Amino acid sequence: MGAQSAGHAAPQTITEELRRWIVAQAEAGCRPQDVVAAMRASGWDEATAVAAMEQTLRRRLDELGQPQPAALSPAAVLPGAVTAVAAVPEPMLSAGPLLRLSDGHEVRLLASLGLPRVLVFGGLLTDAECEALIALAAPRLARSETVVNTTGGSEVNAARTSEGMFFERGELPLIRAFEARIAELLRWPLDHGEGLQVLRYRPGAEYRPHNDYFDPAHPGTARILQRGGQRVATLVTYLNTPEGGGATTFPDVGFEVAPVRGNAVFFSYDRPSAATRTLHAGAPVTAGEKWVATKWLRQGVFS
Question: I want to staple 85 with a disulfide (CB 3.0 to 4.6 A). Which of 8, 61, 73, 130 is the partner?
Answer without folding.
Answer: 73
